Input
Amino acid sequence: MNLYETLAADIEGQVKRGVLLEGERLPSVRQTSQHRNLSISTVLRAYSLLESRGVIESRPQSGYFVRPPLRGVARDVVPAPLVLSSAVDVSRLVLSTLRSIRSHNAVPLGTPYPDPAPYPWPRISQYANAIARRNQDWTVMDDLPPGNPELIRQIARRHMENGMAVDPSEIIVTVGATEAINLCLQAAARPGDTIVVESPTYYAFLHAIERMGMRALEVPTDPRDGISIEALRTILSQQRVAACMVMPNFQNPLGFQMPDARKRELVALLSQHDIPVIENDVYHELYYGDSHPTSLKAYDTKGLVLHCSSFSKSLTANYRIGWALPGRYTAQVEKLKFLNTLATPSQPQMAIAEYLQNDGYDRHLRKVRKGYEQRARMMAAAVTRFFPAGTSVSTPQGGYVLWVGLPQGVDAMRLYALALERKITIGPGHMFSARGSYTNYIRLNYSYPWSKEIEQAVRTLGLLVRDLL
Amino acid sequence: MNLYETLAADIEGQVKRGVLLEGERLPSVRQTSQHRNLSISTVLRAYSLLESRGVIESRPQSGYFVRPPLRGVARDVVPAPLVLSSAVDVSRLVLSTLRSIRSHNAVPLGTPYPDPAPYPWPRISQYANAIARRNQDWTVMDDLPPGNPELIRQIARRHMENGMAVDPSEIIVTVGATEAINLCLQAAARPGDTIVVESPTYYAFLHAIERMGMRALEVPTDPRDGISIEALRTILSQQRVAACMVMPNFQNPLGFQMPDARKRELVALLSQHDIPVIENDVYHELYYGDSHPTSLKAYDTKGLVLHCSSFSKSLTANYRIGWALPGRYTAQVEKLKFLNTLATPSQPQMAIAEYLQNDGYDRHLRKVRKGYEQRARMMAAAVTRFFPAGTSVSTPQGGYVLWVGLPQGVDAMRLYALALERKITIGPGHMFSARGSYTNYIRLNYSYPWSKEIEQAVRTLGLLVRDLL
Output
């Protein structure tokens, strides 16, 4: 190919791939000549070839523009197809599920995220805007770990109000709880190590373990009391465990709140063996009871609890602001944060800090909690009504997901596929175990206001389950 | 301790640590009672104890407030002291250097970041604000990898304008180039593997290698032509190398632009051995020549070049938006992105996309490049004038850092410490090698407008170097 043909082929390829859209102006002949280090005449020849092929058109005094394509150009990213195999790749399954929800515009019973409507993001965004106007000469240095001092103070304050005194110098701001969990695990254990998790477990724990080349050991977990301390004690007497990862409050997917006595017992047992425990407490503020739950961290005397949380479930998911309280691993997690993403942007941190300082965080949360508590009952009632005998439902004590056990033999992945055809998404139980357990369980999100559409979706799911019996 | 004494001690601790500031209102007695699950009388007794100790005061009809402390309360995070040892922990050294720059309000010759003043952040921030107003019901699902489709299109377009046709489905948006580099390395190599880097090398490469439990192999690098392909060829004939990490354009710290012929040769050699190469191209837009440099990626025919870049050096550092073009590792990097930080916030992505679409990115860059090119000459001239004989300076072809070789025997860490006392920061050469090379080298940032203060700082550095001879 000549130079001009190569250039023409390049540009035509970009139009086909949707990089250049219909009606969009091409870079000028002069720009292209300069950027590509080609002569003006070569560029003109390429443009004229494209014109003759009907790819672009020249408009007098304006330049060259992309002509309407023959077929529609894919502008969005096509989601990867859902891969089903006996050895489930949990992270790919989760990502596929999330993509399906988005791309199918489906009833979002499968999403792990709360309905964004009641969250005060517009207000926080106003703060962010004012902050941006005040700070026009920011550099990355202002954003270095551990994080924005004012947000760190507000986080410490909130912990204090919730009954847990924390040292602000232990707080490290992260890109959501996901980054916090990853960094804490890397600080606390090494590749090849065995990590204890609940069963079923929150899938991001499995992701982190898989990614670091560690091994997950799934320990029986009671749907009301949490991880079996008895089983854990037996395991610890027999094998080396490097760390433990749990969600003591409103576990995803079971929804339980571990009783205080058991939290204390768990921390004591692990401390005795000098085993660090990573606590994911992102649903802390979404309790249905009269008062805040306690955190494992509150029972920690040896710096072995690495507490992870975020504002994504309670305040704004859009900013991806989380934090870690890594106990004796603080210096290491701070360094890993620096290595992993260098800095967390300051603007969203400061905006959240201003909201926490000035606005009605508690009022907002009271409203949200009340809604979730009501919808937990409505969702459970609808499942009980529409699903066949042999179905079980959890009784969440906080958060916004219901764990539904289907009759033996019903494959949640098949239900997932059938439901998706009817524009309904669910969270298949396969996501919550690396061993392929919970294949007849599903997780349902009830954060959205109860509606005819949601009721109809639950009814449809019930009929599909009957078909699969 | 009684319950009320424990509560009082907790609150007093929080005041001492600066979580509660002077004049700030305490949570009400009712709130505290509810959150801590304590009786009203216990809380009242605790507050009254704190009052008697002078920690808080009650104001009629308003509640309890923190009284002025006896000594100033530390509100900011105190930077960790700079650790000097023979086995330099590169990442801790880099973090300490950055912190020192911030906390000492020093002349920022040591910063790796550009002067933020000429960057159009206020304009991009206006877009972000408008986007936030239009999108009030965003969920994390809209932000899932690979990234915002419009930004991906704009990135592909920019690559095309710069002479490199890329497939938009290969682009993965990340939290800055730092995350892109980490994910690409994890996708391309395994713990224990040997990774080839330039010598001196960009320290974030060393960080990523250190963090993943891999080993860095530093290969001689010419200050004008880049990594020695001859040396690399010899190495590859003798040992297994898993990947290579380079900065072919305006390398940090040397500033060279690898000639096209050598870029082509490097990619050919590595392709022949089927070795992936991670290319950090963040300074791509900051060239001093007449046209854009080429990227290694442009010579790649086997999908072995993992190209990493960001907008942090060319447009806005505040948003931490970078991207990767990981070639045949795309699916894996996309999954790792999901596991590492789940999602990159959409709002900053969309704001940058709108800027690229509507504003004068090229005009902005022309102005910035012109300034850097002038200051490169002024900084080199000042060093030549004020530093003793035996000093060498680089001749950067882009970017905004100068690499200065001090006379043999001058220890850059000692210079760093002495300069810091005079409120001047520099980048000690120790940061650019894991083997402890370059102990008599420093990196100087010249992105800030030339001023009397900067000239004076260079003069002071010259005097300090003479003292150290």
Notes: Chain A has three domains: 3-66, 73-79+88-117+363-468, 121-361. Chain A touches chain B through 99 residues (CB under 8 Å). Residues 70-88 of chain A have pLDDT under 50 and may be disordered.
